[in-house]
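dumping this here before i forget
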Amino acid sequence: MYICALCSKEIEVDKYFSRKSACRKCGGDLHICLNCRFYDEKAHNKCREPKAEFQRSREKANFCDYFVFRERPAQSADNEKDAARKKLDDLFKK
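structure:
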């Protein structure tokens, strides 16, 4: 399942996915660092792909040849609440 990083809505990505592709829900660009599986806030240049060029904007379409759309598991609102509660419980357990 693919999730738009800008609006958090599920999207369909077909074989014709390109740099100009946009989310049908929010209209935001899809070929962005925030949607890439190599994006990592803690990595150098915020990218785990060592050959990728520095991208100034993470929220705008770019020409990165290493882009691979990140797959994210589907989570309903109840699952998100349960996951957050579990993290809190684990944090405060003795």
